[in-house]
Amino acid sequence: MDKTSYNNIAKGWEFAEASALNVESDKLQTLRDKASEAGFAQCSRSQGAFLQFLAGRNAPASIILVGNGSVVEALRLMTGLHGHGQFTAVDSTAQGTSLVKKIFAGMEKAHPGMRLRAVNAAARTYFPRLNPSDYDLIVVSGNGDNYQQVMDQAPRLLKDRGQLIFTDAFDLLDEPDKGGVLNPANRSEKTTTLRTIMEDISKDNAWESCLLPIGTGMIMATRAR
Description:
Elements: H1 3-18, H2 26-37, H3 45-58, E1 62-67, H4 71-80, E2 85-91, H5 94-105, E3 114-120, H6 123-126, E4 135-140, H7 144-157, E5 158-167, H8 189-203, E6 207-212, E7 218-223
Helix pairs in contact: 3-4, 4-5, 7-8
């Protein structure tokens, strides 16, 4: 692929981020700004739109979001539930947990069939308490610790054909100057973890998976029992 092709792909990414198809409501934009000001990195607009679309089309009964103040992902996924189902938010920060609860409080009256379980805990301590084969979709964002912890537990928790998504798969949100997984010389903890996850999933026949260049990258995997 020549330089012109690469430049066009980069322009296409910018076009998708600004597209009306991925537009964010005023409420969502306000939440994004508040979370960013609090130091919580948020997913891109196209990535958030994709998560909402996916949740809406697959009609999951139970979603887990593991993150650190990941309010854009939370609101997008809740919206995708269309007022039904269980949404579990696992956040190792008290502030992030509080933000998710506030989002749900604003939606609860309009969607009485949707239930929230917001937990201020690390995935490594909370996930072992959850029932096996009980979840349709697990979405992972935030710091690097979340990624490997969920990777270890997801096979036990997902239903047959359940889906696992890792956002920021290129590790470009927190330290973009380091180049994430795109920079072979980068050996940061999150980048190293993501490389390991990509390699392990690609070799494990129990997963059907792909890596997508949406936003800052997404690993998508379906558990094939």
